[in-house]
Amino acid sequence: MRLFYLLGYAAIAVFGYGVYVQIRKYRRGAALKLDGSFQARLGDMIGKVLSHRTIARRDPAAGAAHRLIFYGFALLFIGTSTITLQYDILDPLFGIRFWHGKFYLVFSLVLDVAGVALVGGLVYMMYRRRWLRLPKLDYARPDRAPGDPDFDRPQYRREDWAFLWILVVIGCTGYLLEAARLVWLQARPDVWDTRWWSPVGALIAEACRALGMTEHGGALLRHGLWWFHGLIALAFIALIPFTKVKHIFTSAASLMVRDPQAAQRLPRIPESQAQAGVAKITDFNWKQLLNLDACTKCGRCHEACPARAVGAPLSPRDVILSLRDFAKATLESGAIPEAAELDVHGKAPGQVAQETLWSCRTCMACVEICPVAVEHVPVIVQMRRKLVEDGAMDPLLTKTLQTIHKTGNSFGESKRKRAAWTKGLPFPIKDARKEPVDVLWFVGDYASFDPRNQKVTRTFAALLHEAGVDFGILFESESNAGNDVRRVGEEGLYEVLANANVAAMAGASFKTVVTTDPHSYNTIRNEYPDFGGRYEIQHYTSFVKQLFADGKLRVTSPLTYRATFHDPCHLGRFNKGYEAPRDVLKFLGCELVEMGRSRANSFCCGAGGGRIWIPDPIGSEKPAQNRIKEAAAIPDLDVYVVSCPKDLTMFEDALKTTGNEGKFVVKELIELIREAIPVHRPEEVPA
Amino acid sequence: MKILVAVKQVAALDEDFEFRGDGRDVDPDFFIRDLNEWDDFSLEEAVKIKEASSTPVDVVAVSVGPDDVDEVLRKCLAKGADRAVRVWDDAIEGSDPIAIARVLAAVAKHEAPDMVFAGVQSSDQSFASTGIATAAFLDWPHAAVVSELNYAPGAKTAVFRRELEGGLLHEVEIQCPAVLTIQLGINRPRYASLRSIKQAAAKPIEVLSLADLSLSAADVGEAGSASRVRRMYMPDKGRAQLIEGDAAAQAERLAAIIREFKGDSA
Fold first, then answer.
1. Do A388 and B196 touch (CB under 8 A)?
2. CATH class of the region A271-392
């Protein structure tokens, strides 16, 4: 008995040391001050853990199984702890004993059920891994080739199975112990008569007796098993900080430090920091290092990633796991290795390759679905900042950034031509710099310069005009909003653009900002406040919905199209603008058929994160093509509706390149509104 | 060791530009200014040599122009130049490439570099003579249109290749110091991030006057120039037209045009 206590203390000591090593690892990261109250964060985390809301999303079976494991494990842990509490603390010190009578019986029933839940959940998880062979649980990496040392990482699989088996064995030996005790003490009525309060144990005991086990046999079995069960349990505790078991703590902590705006509002580079972005593992902040350890390899980000889906060398899961392995190799030993060994950029195991970082569309699908609040997008963008600083990027992207710096737009057009689309409109557009307006329309680059989108822009201007909206634009004082420049990682240029736009808007008098561009919408709404620009801003979909609700726009010839709607990343996932465009489609009379991947699970067109300026590799499928194929599977589809200028460009192109031209059309929602409210004859347009 | 890189701020035309009052140039209000593309390559070549060298190398960017030229010099500093020198005096206004070369040669004497790089030409004026004229003033060996260079700072000679007509390459060994004009494509110029440009703003740009270089107003401007721009203008539009229709209609139309040209009245 004394030996067991000694081993117990040793296990706790190993556990404690492991916790110390982990915390020391996180503290080796950069500093970060969290905002928001501790209580609110704690409450949010507890809510998510208890409800398993985030784990059940898009995989209810895994959610249910994990819930069984979690509650089974938690109850058994609490049960065992209370036994220890009485046996080792309360009874010897104060003579308090509560483990008897009715309480004991109810408790043994609860723990028996908890054990069933635990083992049942674990067995289902084994079934998933062994028989369902879910692609998201395949550890083969799209950014490595077979034969690379970290290609499919069999050590991960071994750890997964060891984890499942150790818990199954602990659970099952617990039942056997219970049964052996019953067989051993079958002569004692206080034990035997209440045996059905632990039904599984009793059932096994009956079976053992039927097989001829004697009281003596039961005693022997119990003695041997007791040690076996105890030692495995102690080993499990000792191993927690060194294995995936630590997710119990790291995932909970990660949920607690979650930033709900992680992808929407990227961090600024502090004035005091000379270097831009992340070069070394220690440039990540402690929260990001914790994020790495929170990952449970569930593969949901891997499954949701549009880059991965089209075979690009990126899986958000593997970025995180690679960096985790890197942090483990470098930051868990006593002394931190030299700076040269901390470089996270490259192709060696643990490092992240340039091509991987440049494959990202910053569409936020990974961040959005992660059940444990891993924030991949800021990690990738901060690593890109370093690449931009080194000039390690596609030459075309370099050219575009230089162009944006020079002209304020990505089309390389003269600033003076920014409002050229207004020429030929039958009514003047107010210059918001010169006269006050109700609505400042932030037009954005694509809507201003791209010829196809200019048509939509003119239509929207006409609709606003006909609805009697008092609006104006900034003409050549408007610059590229910078959303994508920031996501490329060119933070200095972003600062220039954001400051220029904030200054231009400060020179105008308006009540609210409206834009047709979800990218501009996101950065103005979520990021300009950090630059002193705080505005009430709406995407046009919600603004138009209000115009319909107020009767300022009326459908005069309802549409009968069968339509599907593509949620733009920056409107939907980023800013939860799911309903307004759908409501407008209903107002117009369209029949809305949803694609399998919609709303939060919308599939990026591939243009985000600056990828619109980087050519996709020839021959490979583009995300927009993948998406159009999904829409093409909808029977009798008439219109694929978009509400983002970049989407219009990407999907009209994909419609042609996938050979679906003529089967259905890609249209801006604005164009459908125009169709449902036919144009007045020029003479009817109020001057 | 030192490499002097001559750079120029060039002007690109904005949409709908107008000419200056005297009709000899475009109104500067319609310019979008930037670092000359060729100079981007020659600066990159110098910085690459510096980075590959075991001995310390100073890369000095020099430009002739008023204070708004500091913008391109800051870009050079951001891309890895160690120092930036700008020469200006109002008398320099109106200089042709020969007068500018006289100033650059004076800077080279002042700085005593081991090598001088210039771009083959500037994208706005395309004289392609500044670099070579600088060599003439210095009386140094020179070569134009260098497309590949092998040079170790401090070496007595450098070996380079030049592209000739018909896909021929010219491999040349040259005595140092020398003046080389660098061709596009010799390397891949790095990107100067906005942050690095901002940080470069903290580095000083040395401003030299004519007096600092022992030059006088007569050496520069129109007085020191060998040529003078008389007029800048937009030529009349050509008269190309597309003839449509089938072969017979096209032939008929073509014949009519020829007759019209000959002055025949059909």
1. no
2. mainly alpha
Burial class (CB in 10 A: 0-12, 13-18, 19+), A684: exposed
Report chain B residues whose CB lies below 8 A from the CB of A416: 14-16
Global pTM value: 0.92
Residue B257 placed within a domain? no
Interface of A with B in 390-429 (CB under 8 A): 390-391, 393, 395, 398, 401-402, 405-407, 413-414, 416-417
Q: What is the pLDDT along chain B (266 residues), one digit of tens a residue?
A: 999 999 999 998 877 788 999 999 999 888 888 999 999 999 999 999 999 999 999 999 999 999 999 999 999 999 999 999 999 999 999 999 999 999 999 999 999 999 999 999 999 999 999 999 999 999 999 999 999 999 999 899 999 999 888 889 999 999 999 999 999 999 999 999 999 999 999 999 999 999 999 999 999 999 999 999 999 998 887 778 888 889 999 999 999 988 888 877 54
Is A668 an 8 Å CB contact of chain B?
A: no
Q: Which residues does B100 contact at the CB level (< 8 Å), separation at least 6?
A: B64, B92, B130, B133
> Distance from A482 to chain B by nearest Cα, in Å?
13
Q: Residue B179: which CATH number?
A: 3.40.50.620
Asked if B14 and A401 come within 8 Å (Cβ–Cβ), the reply is no
Q: Do the domain assignments include residue B234?
A: no
Number of domains forming the structure of chain B: 1
**How far is the alpha carbon of B190 from chain A, nearest alpha carbon, in Å?**
6
Delimiting residues of CATH 1.20.950 domain(s) in chain A:
2-25+45-138+153-255
CA distance A483 to chain B (A): 16
Which residues span the domain enclosing B162?
2-219
The minimal CB distance from B14 to the residues A390, A391, A416 is found for A416
CATH topology of domain A2-25+45-138+153-255: Fumarate Reductase Cytochrome B subunit (1.20.950)
Q: 3-state DSSP call for residue B246?
A: coil
Query: What is the DSSP code string of A311-357?
Result: T-S--HHHHHHHHHHHHHHHHSSSSPPPGGGGB-BSSSTT-B-HHHH
- What distance, in Å, lies between the first and last C-alpha atoms of chain A? 96
